[in-house]
Amino acid sequence: MRTGSQYLSAIDDGRRVYLDGKRVDGVARHPAFAPIAKTVSELFDLAADPASGMTRPGPNGEVVNRLFTAPRSREDLTAFREAATTWARHTHGWVGRSPDHVGAFLAAFASHPDVFGDYAANVTAFQKRVVEEDLYLSYAIIPPQVSRATTASAWDGDLVQVGVAEERADGIVVRGAQMLATGGPVADEILVSCIKPLTPEDTDFALSFVLPVDTEGLKLYCRRPYAPAATSHYDYPLTTRFDETDALLVFDDVFVPWDRVFVYRDVAGVRNQFFETGAHVLGNWQAQIRFSVKLQFLAGLARKVAAVNGVDKFPGVVEKLGELASLVSLVESAVLAAEYTAEPDSAGLWRPGSRALYGAMGLQSELYPRVLAILRDLVGGGVLQVPSSVADMTSPETRADIDRYIYSPGTPAADRVKLFKLAWDAVGSEFAGRHHQYELFYAGAPFVVKGYSFRNYGFDGPVSEVDRFLAGYSEESQ
Length: 478
Ligand SMILES: Cc1cc2nc3c(=O)[nH]c(=O)nc-3n(C[C@H](O)[C@H](O)[C@H](O)COP(=O)(O)OP(=O)(O)OC[C@H]3O[C@@H](n4cnc5c(N)ncnc54)[C@H](O)[C@@H]3O)c2cc1C
Known about the structure:
This protein is α+β, with helices and mostly antiparallel strands. Helix content is 47%, strand content 14%. The chain has 16 helices and 14 strands. The chain has helices spanning 4-10, 34-48, 74-91, 100-111, 120-133, 239-242, 267-275, 279-308, 315-340, 354-379, 390-394, 399-405, 413-427, 430-441, 446-457, 460-471, and strands spanning 16-19, 22-23, 55-57, 63-65, 137-140, 163-168, 171-182, 189-192, 207-212, 218-222, 246-257, 261-264, 343-344, 350-351. It binds flavin-adenine dinucleotide. Flavin-adenine dinucleotide is lined by residues 97, 139-142, 145, 148, 179-182, 246, 434, 437-438, 441-442, 444-447.
């Protein structure tokens, strides 16, 4: 299996990643991307270590990462969850688009080649490469936020959302942009498609294809990276390890050979790839596994802060910690309930139960802000009553005051400052703010995600139960 250092060399390929008006020279060495690339390289090393339990035999008896393969039994599904948990624990849930996210989408795509019609062989061949070569895919499946009042065919300007500029005998030429490839700058390849509903007028934009990040004409415009501004690991322990840069993709007449096309000018096809294959449910189950690990980490942080401040026996604080415990347990339980209610589909892919999965996802936009609010409440001003940087800890001129005034019973300054700086990086730093936005939007705007919950709950049973109850009495029977 691929090692971390093989991955790091692979992404050093001249890709066109832009920051501050300039092209980045070598993402794996650049201060904005080197930290997250190192974290991803650790994930690959972890998966390749037989002790991690993340491997399974591949189709030819070789050893492969099970997270890139489709679960084909209940035991497989459980092992998938355990492997996804192992990766998530390595980042404590702070890396949203680790390679298992889009990997899960691809595994489900390949389980249902029929959904891709004439392009089926492209999907299965590519997914075989993902498994054999341990490829890290990012995806950009949302149109640029030009206007949500209409779809791209009604926008001013030619091909603003990525679409077909030219069809050739050997492939297609695409032009335009798509948002928002988290991890794109450090991925091997990118899946480009559109999950937002399109109209019959949007066929030019009804595409799905994969490309290496270094493809000629593909440019990645990154939002402001937070890692370079972070002063040290000590001051920003999360930012300095887990800052996945989000990137807008721009396609300057990019050539896509036919063997990399999954869906072509097919409005129904782009939706079917996500929902008919089981990709949406498997990929989002991975996301909820990661989310539950992150919530556990935040709960641990809150519990520790309360103990250090000596407030953890006060009834009001116990109530807050109890609420936090309930919120976290709900997500943990939904992950397990989705596994418990999983069923094999017509192709033998074990799909996590959609009712439990989307039930949890639908509440994520309320649940994450509530968890942050409880943590913010418990940390009080402690996250600001910290020295400006680790330099105040190491300087003989300042350290004595820090030791004398920033401590708690049983918790010397060194430990207290470290804990509260971590808490700030979780709730208050720029990285924390981005994570807040991420958890609200990564699976779609909240109204979209609640729509999944609405459609997958299965209201027929509860409605007929109410009907039966109503039928049991009448005006006459009172
Ligand atoms: C940090 C982060 C990372 C991301 N990573 C990725 C990634 O890796 N890959 C990827 O493809 N995408 C990614 N996304 C994009 C994400 O999928 C989108 O943000 C999400 O689908 C919502 O789309 P939008 O941002 O355009 O919001 P919009 O759809 O514009 O919604 C914004 C708000 O407008 C309102 N609104 C819009 N349309 C309607 C409507 N029809 N009815 C009612 N209200 C409406 C809603 O209140 C909504 O909350 C990421 C986003 C964030 C914030």
